Amino acid sequence: MSHFFEASIKPRFSETDMRGHINNTVIPVWLADGRAALFREELGCKVPTMVVNLNVDFMRELHWGELVTVRTAVARVGNSSICFQQQLWQNAEQCVQAHTTIVTLDPETRKPIRVPEFERTRLHPYMVIAES
Fold it and tell me: What is the structure's pLDDT at 1?
């Protein structure tokens, strides 16, 4: 069981191919939007971050004209990194599974820093809970 934060995306026509399928290059942008919404709406924090790893599995096509739900959970919080488990859903079907790792950065040196305690505490409700 996981406690996902959910954000909605309204696909734009410009993100499609000639058949109305969402282009695969759009998916990382939508995943970033989901993480940004979590940070903005739930954490209210402004610590700079950088993506250091992104793995995406495409399960079904996404289409223009229907809302997409980005579901974001926290798989692990390390010293300077946060690993997210993310999903994209459309029409009650999971279309994408992704794992994204970000690192927190010092705003001046742009070097990795420890994830602030405030963020650790606020991310806790979104931690992935292993099922028994």
Answer: 45
